[in-house]
Specification:
Number of helices: 5
Number of strands: 16
Order of helices and strands: HHEHEEEEEHEHEEEEEEEEE
Amino acid sequence: MRTIEEQVERLVARGLPEAPLKAWLAERDGPQAGLVVVHPDLVPASALAPLLERDGKPGFVVPDMTDLDEFAPIEGVEVPGGPAYVVTDPQRGDDLLNWSPDEALPELVGRGRSPMTVSEGVSWLLQQPDVLARNVCFMTIGSRKPKGKALDRRTPAIWVSNGVERDGGAARKGAAKVGWCWAGNRHTWLGFASVAARHG
């Protein structure tokens, strides 16, 4: 993992707002190692996704998820304020392949870990694109969309596009794709990303 300073430089090089990120970097006194996450208040996940690059192709959000930015941290997931923050020990959750989101959440909490949000997942891939591998991808169930007094049954996930028509066709084959899965469904190729802690 790059240093905090190197990660901020990488984000700025990708076109993210320099002034607030550099100001945050100068003022922070948190841990000196970890993953820098772009706060959705600075740049929402829908705008971060196209900055991803895999196989020379930009990332994208599936066309039927126009409400991605309405997916907020779930109860128990406390996201620090500010233009950015740091998470420690991000993991892809490969040992939870073929679990459903409903099953994986209590398991992660029981391990003392916190489910990754979709902004954290995209931020991770901005720094380490090779984390996303075909057939070993991940969900970000720390983000859910409120729906009345309940939650929308969709859960965000990030995987590799097969270039199907609903993704925009063959031109997007191999690209990083932000989509969704039902909270009760299992997928043999989707784990559950998590972090150890979050710091401002």
